[in-house]
Design brief:
Blueprint lengths: L7 H11 L8 E3 L1 H7 L2 E6 L9 H10 L3 H6 L1 E4 L3 H13 L3 E5 L5 H11 L3 E5 L4 H15 L2 E2 L6 H17 L6 E5 L4 H13 L4 E7 L4 H8 L22 H10 L2 E5 L1 H15 L9 H5 L4 H4 L3 E6 L9 H11 L3 E7 L6 H9 L5 E7 L10 E6 L6 H10 L3 E4 L4 H7 L1
Parallel strand pairs: 2-10, 3-4, 3-6, 4-5, 7-8, 7-10, 8-9
Antiparallel strand pairs: 1-2, 11-13, 11-14, 12-13
Helix pairs in contact: 1-8, 3-5, 3-8, 5-6, 8-9, 9-11, 12-15
Length: 417
C-alpha cells in the first residue's frame, strides 16, 4: 500500500501513460433512463473497455511505473476478476510474468478471460472463498518470493489510473454535471474519480453506491474508522470486499457526498432491464449506479446525471440466478413449505382452490423422499402480479394448509433453495 495522497496532476499524468493502451470509452445519453427519471442520464461505458472494465487503468498505470529490476522478478495480484484481467492484459503488453490469486468462487468466464488476456505471461492460482482470502494468500506469496504486489485499489498509482474515468467523462460532458454515481468496492474508482471531479467541479454531487450485502465503505464512514465486515454477500462479486483500503477510505471521506446502499435483488432487476431495454450487458457491480437512481429520484429530477457502468463481465451461466433474485425481490417469486392435509384430493384442492388463475408452480418436491404423506412439500410459485400474493396466502390459511414462507426465513431459504 502507498500512503501518498492523490492529486489532480497524478490523474492527468496517468491519462498520458494510458492513452495508447485503454479505450477512451463513450459517454452516452440514455433516453430510456432519462425519460424514466425526468432528467438527463449519461452512461460512462467502461463495460466497453478493452478488458470490459475500468480496472485496466489502475493496473497498467502502476505496473508501468515500476523500475526494471522489480518488473524482472514479476508481479502478483489478488482479484475477484476485473483487476486480474487488467493485470493480465498489462503483463502481456509489457512482456512480464504475473501470478494472479483469485477466489475459488470466481465465475468461470472471468478466469477464462484472465487466461485469454495474459496468455503465457500469467498463472492463475485459485484460493479461498472471498477476495480477502485471496488477498492474504497473495501478500504472503509476495513476501516469500520478494515480488511486487499490485494492489487492486489501495495504491496511489492505482487510484490515479482509475481517476482517468472521471477525467474522460468531465471532458466529454458539454453541460455542467450535477451528479456522478460510481460503485464502491475497495474504493479505488470512487477515490480516483471523486478526486478529479471535486478538483475541477466542486459543486458536482459525487455519490458512491454499494450493495446491501457488503457495505464496507458506508459502515466505515458511518463509524469514523475502517471496519472489517464479518459476513458479506458475494453476489455482487466486483464490489464484495470485507475491508476497504486505508488510502481509499481517507480520500472517499473527503470527496464522496453520499453512499447509497442498494439490495442485490434490485441490482438483478436492473441487469435484466439494461439487457432487455438497452442491449447493455452489465455485471452486478456495473449495474449498481443505475440501481441507485430510484433512491435519488427526487434529487436528480431535471439534472445532468452520469452513471459509471464499471464493467460488463457477466457470466451467462448466472442469468438464471439473476432472474430468480430479481423476481424474488419484485415479489413475483415465492417459496413455501406446505403441509398438505391427510385427506384424499388435498393436492387437487390446492391446485384448484388455492392457486390463482395466473399463478404457476415452478418447483414442487416432497422434503421426505421415503414418507411423502408425512412430510411437507417444497413449493415454488411464480405470480404475474405481486398484489396476488396476499390473496394466495389467505386462501392457503382458509383451506387449512399449514405453511412456512421461506422468503421470510433466510436460514431455511438458503438451506432449501
Amino acid at each position: 500500500m502507498d500512503n501518498q495522497s492523490v492529486k489532480l496532476e497524478d490523474i492527468i499524468v496517468a491519462s498520458h501513460v494510458l492513452k495508447d493502451v485503454v479505450h477512451h470509452t463513450p459517454l452516452q445519453k440514455n433516453f430510456i433512463l432519462s425519460e424514466k427519471y425526468n432528467c438527463n442520464v449519461f452512461l460512462k461505458r467502461e463495460d466497453l473497455q478493452v478488458v470490459r472494465s475500468f480496472k485496466i487503468r489502475g493496473a497498467y498505470n502502476l505496473i508501468r511505473s515500476l523500475p526494471e529490476e522489480k518488473l524482472a522478478k514479476g508481479v502478483v495480484c489478488a482479484s475477484a476478476g476485473n483487476h486480474a484481467q487488467g493485470m493480465a492484459f498489462s503483463c502481456k503488453a509489457l512482456q512480464i510474468q504475473g501470478k494472479i490469486f483469485m477466489p475459488t468462487t470466481t465465475p468461470r468466464q472471468k478466469i477464462s478471460q484472465v487466461k485469454l488476456f495474459g496468455g503465457s505471461f500469467v498463472e492463475v492460482i485459485l484460493t479461498g472463498d472471498t477476495f480477502d482470502d485471496s488477498l492474504n494468500e497473495a501478500v504472503r506469496y509476495c513476501e516469500k518470493e520478494e515480488m511486487q504486489f499490485i494492489h487492486p485499489f489501495d495504491n496511489q498509482k492505482i487510484i490515479a489510473g482509475q481517476g482517468t474515468v472521471g477525467l474522460e467523462l468531465m471532458n466529454d460532458m458539454r453541460e455542467p454535471v450535477d451528479f456522478v454515481f460510481a460503485g464502491i468496492g475497495g474504493g479505488g474508482l470512487a477515490a480516483g474519480v471523486g478526486t478529479y471531479i471535486k478538483s475541477i467541479s466542486p459543486t458536482t454531487r459525487f455519490i458512491g453506491v454499494e450493495a446491501t450485502g457488503a457495505p464496507s465503505m458506508r459502515e466505515s464512514i458511518d463509524q469514523g474508522e475502517i471496519i472489517t465486515l464479518m459476513d458479506i454477500d458475494k453476489f455482487v462479486d466486483g464490489t464484495a470486499v470485507r475491508r476497504v483500503g486505508e488510502l481509499t477510505y481517507d480520500i472517499c471521506q473527503k470527496v464522496v457526498d453520499d453512499i447509497i446502499v442498494v439490495p442485490e435483488g434490485k441490482v438483478c432487476t436492473t441487469i435484466l432491464e439494461l439487457y432487455n431495454e438497452n442491449a447493455i450487458v452489465a455485471e452486478p457491480a456495473g449495474a449498481l449506479t443505475i440501481t441507485a437512481l430510484d433512491f435519488y429520484r427526487d434529487q436528480i429530477a431535471g439534472k445532468n446525471v452520469v452513471c459509471i457502468i464499471s464493467g460488463g463481465n457477466n457470466d451467462i451461466d448466472r442469468m438464471q440466478e439473476i432472474k430468480e433474485r430479481s423476481m424474488i425481490y419484485e415479489g413475483l417469486k415465492h417459496y413455501f413449505t406446505v403441509e398438505f392435509p391427510q385427506r384424499a384430493g388435498a393436492l387437487r384442492e390446492f391446485l384448484d382452490e388455492v392457486l390463482g388463475p395466473n399463478d404457476d408452480i415452478t418447483r414442487f418436491e416432497y422434503t421426505k423422499k421415503t414418507s411423502k404423506e408425512n412430510g411437507p412439500a417444497l413449493v415454488g410459485l411464480e405470480l404475474k402480479h405481486k398484489e396476488d400474493y396476499e390473496p394466495l396466502v389467505e386462501r392457503m390459511s382458509l383451506k387449512g394448509f399449514k405453511f412456512v414462507e421461506l422468503n421470510k426465513d433466510p436460514h431455511l431459504f438458503n438451506l432449501l433453495i
